[in-house]
């Protein structure tokens, strides 16, 4: 007997209540396989496609040269500005390729990085109308906020010296057969009237979680978000760990310590929508409202007051898939909890249903 060719309806065997939705399942499965085929043909497979963070944003070569790439097809000019070039808008030009990707290489100087670690840097662009706009790089790994100056985040170039980079000591524990998940928000994990830290969570909360018998932690509000009261569900910077709680190395230590206790760590992922912030988010990044998102009303979530991703765009898929892999590779998260899936699946976004 010939093997059944997968068509997306196998899940009905597990849940017969899905029987009326077989046609929809087949349609979604076909779209997924079409995308995988396209990625295989144009990008060399999902493995390469999901490593966008090794191509975009800031990446440092072994000799200290810094390569910066940014997708911004609507921009007519682009330059890097920052502390490193005294914010001169013409000093560090970028070159645009046929796919709308801007690129610049900053050679090391006498063995030193051209952009110092933890210094401020942005991309400045010109739109077709002649307007100059300054933006935080979409693939940034570190942003900080000084409320005494402005609620708008600053982007910083994060590449600490090797001796300051966290070195993982423990392998991830085996996947639990039965998950007992402790949902946690680092910032409110202390009785003190202040925002708690990664260090505090590692020292105080992890032993308690272990003692209570949990074998998994689901961390909320890790991706950087300007609006703290959103509980992390209005993400500005998808590759940046929230600086409210400490530095990236502190989060890595938290995860590594959890692994040493036999606890897996899950990341609460928000790919269902994004903050509508312009100055420190993805919205209107290159002057258009439809770079990462749908244009017009289709790109807005009326209840959440946020922007909606265009999952049918090649570069948006690269961004989001690479985002997942980045958190697994760079921070060693073990898995994800996806927020707002109803909004991702349905045109009505779950509103009024």
From TrEMBL:
Domain of life per record: Eukaryota
Pfam families (alphabetical): Alpha-amylase, CBM_48
SUPFAM superfamilies in alphabetical order: (Trans)glycosidases (SSF51445), E set domains (SSF81296)
Entry GO MF terms: 1,4-alpha-glucan branching enzyme activity; hydrolase activity, hydrolyzing O-glycosyl compounds
Ranges of residues in domain Glycosyl hydrolase family 13 catalytic: 206-277
Domain Glycoside hydrolase family 13 N-terminal, chain residue ranges per copy: 55-139
Pathway field: Glycan biosynthesis; glycogen biosynthesis
Entry GO CC: cytoplasm
Swiss-Prot/TrEMBL GO biological process terms: glycogen biosynthetic process
Function: Glycogen-branching enzyme participates in the glycogen biosynthetic process along with glycogenin and glycogen synthase. Generates alpha-1,6-glucosidic branches from alpha-1,4-linked glucose chains, to increase solubility of the glycogen polymer.
Protein name: 1,4-alpha-glucan-branching enzyme
Species annotation: Trichophyton rubrum (strain ATCC MYA-4607 / CBS 118892) (Athlete's foot fungus)
């Amino acid at each position: 007997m010939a093997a059944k060719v997968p068509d997306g309806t196998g899940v009905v065997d597990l849940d017969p209540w899905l029987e009326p939705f077989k046609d929809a399942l087949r349609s979604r499965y076909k779209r997924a396989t079409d995308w995988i085929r396209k990625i295989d043909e144009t990008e060399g497979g999902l493995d390469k496609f999901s490593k966008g963070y090794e191509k975009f944003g800031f990446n440092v070569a072994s000799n200290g040269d810094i390569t910066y790439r940014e997708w911004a097809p609507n921009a007519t000019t682009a330059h890097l500005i920052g502390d490193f070039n005294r914010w001169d808008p013409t000093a560090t030009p970028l070159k645009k390729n046929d796919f709308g990707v801007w690129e610049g290489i900053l050679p090391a100087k006498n063995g030193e990085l051209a952009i110092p670690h933890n210094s401020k840097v942005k991309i400045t662009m010109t739109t077709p109308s002649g307007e100059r706009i300054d933006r935080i790089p979409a693939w940034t790994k570190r942003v900080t906020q000084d409320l005494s100056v402005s609620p708008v985040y600053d982007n910083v170039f994060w590449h600490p010296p090797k001796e300051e980079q966290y070195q993982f000591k423990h392998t991830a524990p085996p996947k639990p057969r039965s998950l007992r998940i402790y949902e946690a928000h680092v910032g409110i994990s202390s009785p003190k009237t202040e925002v708690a830290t990664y260090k505090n969570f590692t020292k105080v909360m992890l032993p308690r979680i272990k003692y209570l018998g949990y074998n998994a932690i689901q961390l909320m509000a890790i991706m950087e978000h300007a609006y703290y009261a959103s509980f992390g569900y209005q993400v500005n910077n998808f590759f940046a760990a929230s600086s409210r709680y400490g530095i990236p190395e502190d989060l890595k230590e938290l995860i590594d310590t959890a692994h040493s206790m036999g606890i897996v760590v899950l990341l609460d992922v928000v790919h269902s929508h994004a903050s509508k912030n312009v100055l420190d988010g993805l919205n209107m990044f290159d002057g258009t409202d439809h770079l990462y998102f749908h244009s017009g009303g289709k790109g807005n979530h009326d209840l959440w007051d946020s922007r909606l991703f265009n999952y049918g765009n090649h570069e948006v898929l690269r961004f989001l898939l690479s985002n997942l892999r980045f958190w697994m590779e760079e921070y060693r998260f073990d898995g994800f909890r996806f927020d707002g899936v109803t909004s991702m699946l349905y045109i009505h976004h779950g509103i009024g249903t």
